[in-house]
Structures are given as C-alpha cells and as structure tokens.
Design goal:
By secondary structure, this protein is mostly beta strands. Helix content is about 10%, strand content about 40%. It is built from one helix and five strands, in the order E-E-E-E-H-E. The termini are far apart.
Amino acid sequence: MDIRVGDTLVMKKQHPCGSVRWLVLRTGADFRLRCAVCGREVMGPRSKFERNVKGIERPAEE
C-alpha cells in the first residue's frame, strides 16, 4: 500500500472522539498518526494500520 507522509487515512473504525480520519506523520516499519479531530497521536506497526484503512486522501499536488 502506498502511504506517504501528509496523506489522510480514512479508517474502518472510529476513534473514541468520533473521527475516522488520521493524518500520517511518519512512515516506515511503524506509522505515527494524528487524529484529525482531537489531535491525539498514536504510533504502531504498519501491518496493523494497513488492515484498517478504508481509503487514502492525498493533498492536492501542485
């Protein structure tokens, strides 16, 4: 899966705050993500997050 820093991931399950969108801050073997609503940051293994991705929203390229 081609996930880059700056992408917004739409996840299958909601965060407790109600959001399903997460901003990618770091990629590699682990991902660091920030919740788009409450700003909570989480870090975890790439395999776990890739299973839960429903869609990827890329910022507009110039």
